[in-house]
Amino acid sequence: MSERYFVAEPIHSGQTRLVDEEAHHLAHVMRAHTGDEVVVFDGSGAEWAARVARIGRSEVDLELFERREVDRELHLRLTLAVALPKGDRQRWLVEKAVELGVHRLQPLLTERGVAQPIDKALVRLRRTVIEASKQCGRNRLMEIAPPVDCLDCIAAASEGDAVRAMADPCGTQSVGSFLAGINPSAARALTCLIGPEGGFSKRELDVAQQYGWPLVTLGRRILRVETAAVYLAAVSAELCIRT
Domain spanning 4-69 has what CATH number? Predict the structure, then answer.
């Protein structure tokens, strides 16, 4: 696969331009020359084969010569609503969620949460989405939604048509058996809630159950937040692959 680059502006015509980090990487890290071929995408779902037309001081102009509709998305729109962990573990979680095909990451504000997502951190995480998409070949960017209170998330998600589950050690069935019971031809979306290291509070669990959220267990061991998120994403992706 050719080197992949992201263009923030929608691609419409026969030319496009790389700027900032993307231009720097192609021009100064990869030491590209005029005529070299790359692949570009804008997050809309397609990708384009392109040739380097001009290398400037801080931009690279590309000539587009082939548009490709390449769908590498899961047919089940998976939303992970997660009480984000601290520090670099956030970045690792986002990177793996992108690789596994997660459609949307919803940061949760919970009663026992230790990391409060701030705008600066979310900007960095959205850059991680781009880098991970370039690496794994996705042409649609995973959405990182603004942080929301856990109870508000439970209420809002309950109004939609998505299949819902809340990960908790008190769950009455494994996540695998829960997902096996989903009708893949009928289900189009799945929302999974993952709490902080201290777990969901009794109030949060009670509200979820009042809204009819099934509690699912991820096994006998206590998992880190990012491990639980990746586990849920991987099992969900396997369901999509099999069907």
Answer: 2.40.240.20
